[in-house]
Each structure stands twice: as structure tokens, then as C-alpha cells.
Amino acid sequence: MGSVSVFSIAARRLEGKVALITGGASGIGEHTARLFSKHGAKVVIADIHDNLAQSVCKDVDPKSASFVHCNVTKETEVENAVNTTVAKYGKLDIMFNNAGIVGGAKLNVLDVEKGRV
Ligand SMILES: NC(=O)c1ccc[n+]([C@@H]2O[C@H](COP(=O)([O-])OP(=O)(O)OC[C@H]3O[C@@H](n4cnc5c(N)ncnc54)[C@H](O)[C@@H]3O)[C@@H](O)[C@H]2O)c1
């Protein structure tokens, strides 16, 4: 009995958490969305591929996964993704900035220009 409850806690490490995942329609982001959902998180997938993202949400669990269109090169769309998440779930605990980096990595966020992924 004791070991079962310990396992249950370990298996749902993100219970009650809300996560926003950019580029969550495929690859690393999709697998992260599936794993976070399995661990009990509410997941919002932010991506440019609407149909793909919606089908991932449907497959993961429409009760815990949802989609918002977001091109991360557009600051207003990122702002909208955050606002949509907070409006839907009342908070944002985890922001996984997974979608795209092209070119040399910038170690300091202040060196990153708008519109670059
Ligand atoms: N796969 C690797 O080996 C690897 C290695 C190092 C870094 N990365 C980085 O990790 C991230 C994810 O890699 P992946 O292999 O899962 O890529 P992927 O191509 O499988 O998935 C990327 C996702 O991001 C979405 N996307 C692309 N441009 C977007 C934009 N402007 N706004 C919002 N969503 C956008 C795509 O629609 C797709 O769903 C990328 O930033 C990649 O550069 C990947």
C-alpha cells in the first residue's frame, strides 16, 4: 500500500501545474507535452502548425491539452499565448521556450533581437 502511494506521487509530478510549450506540435515539444500531461500538468501547445497541434491535443487528452496559434517571431503572438494560458487556467507555472533557434546561440537574453528564432 505504502509503495503504491509513493509510486502514484512520483508518476504525477506536475499535478496542478500549467505549462506553455512553444513548438509543441512535433518533435521535442510534442514529446514534452505528452510527458507533462502524463505527469498531471495542464498543457498549452503554442505552434504555427494549427492542424498538427490540434491533433496532438486531441490525442494527448482534450481535457488537459489545448492549442493556441503562436509564431514565436511575433512578440504579440507570444504575449497572446501567455495571456490565453492564464485566462484559461488562471496561472502559468512552466514556460518551455522550445521553438527554434537559428544561427549562433546568444548566451545573454538581452543580446537577442526581436523576430529572431
Ligand atoms: N532535435 C535535435 O537534435 C535538436 C538539437 C539541438 C537543438 N534543437 C532545438 O530544439 C528545438 C526543437 O527541435 P525539434 O527537433 O523538436 O524540432 P521539430 O522541427 O521537430 O519541431 C519544431 C516545432 O516548432 C514549431 N515551430 C517552428 N517555427 C515556429 C515558430 N516560429 N513559432 C512557433 N512554433 C514554431 C514547428 O511547427 C514544430 O512543431 C528547436 O529549437 C531546435 O533548434 C533540436
UniProtKB/TrEMBL annotation:
* Gene3D superfamilies xref list: NAD(P)-binding Rossmann-like Domain
- Name of the protein: Uncharacterized protein
Q: A Pfam family in this protein? A: adh_short
Of which family is this protein a member?
Belongs to the short-chain dehydrogenases/reductases (SDR) family.
- Residue stretches in coiled coil: none
UniProt xrefs under InterPro entries: NAD(P)-bd_dom_sf (IPR036291), SDR_fam (IPR002347)
